């Protein structure tokens, strides 16, 4: 579903990624590890097609959804309005009835503007979009942050679902979390 072939990325004079190779198929969860500034977010943005490699190739089959950290939303919309907007943009996704059911299951108020959501609530909404919009490639930037215990439980369940439906790449600083959820890890920032 996702393939990086000898990918190099430079910003100005600084090389952030140097010859990254990566292949992720449906059914696999790969964790990106590495210190601050080692290029994890850059790799996710390349995978999403938001950046181009300076050298090398990035290939992807199917739609990708990037969950940035913190999640980015149109803050004046309510959760229900935002999901209606998302559904209009994404092909092959679920319907509004499913959206409302998921909001309930994730404990989120449908009619409150998102600017009144806490950071954990925004994170939950971002995770919910993965189930609703059904992308083939899930790109998650520090998905475990801002979540309470119940939110973390939802995330672990969601990643099991992700493993069934998609190719999943996630960036994290939490080694225990990476060990628990990932089939493989890729360590960035090593020379
Ligand atoms: N658009 C950009 N323009 C210039 N430099 C950038 C840009 N995006 C990222 N960088 C630089 O690339 C390097 C890698 O950044 P990136 O955000 O990918 O790291 P990261 O591993 O995700 O870090 P963190 O763990 O802090 O989230 C940093 O030095 C950063 O300043």
Automatic annotation (TrEMBL):
SMART domains hit by this protein: AAA
Gene3D superfamilies: P-loop containing nucleotide triphosphate hydrolases (3.40.50.300)
This protein's UniProt keywords: ATP-binding, Nucleotide-binding, Transport
Annotated ranges, domain ABC transporter: 2-191
Cited InterPro entries: AAA+_ATPase, ABC_transporter-like_ATP-bd, ABC_transporter-like_CS, ABC_Transporter_VariousFunc, P-loop_NTPase
SUPFAM superfamilies: P-loop containing nucleoside triphosphate hydrolases
Keyword Phosphoprotein appears in the UniProt entry: no
Recorded GO MF terms: ATP binding; ATP hydrolysis activity
Presence of the UniProt keyword ATP-binding in the record: yes
PROSITE patterns: ABC_TRANSPORTER_1, ABC_TRANSPORTER_2
Name of the protein: ABC transporter ATP-binding protein
Organism: Thermus filiformis
Species classification: Bacteria, Thermotogati, Deinococcota, Deinococci, Thermales
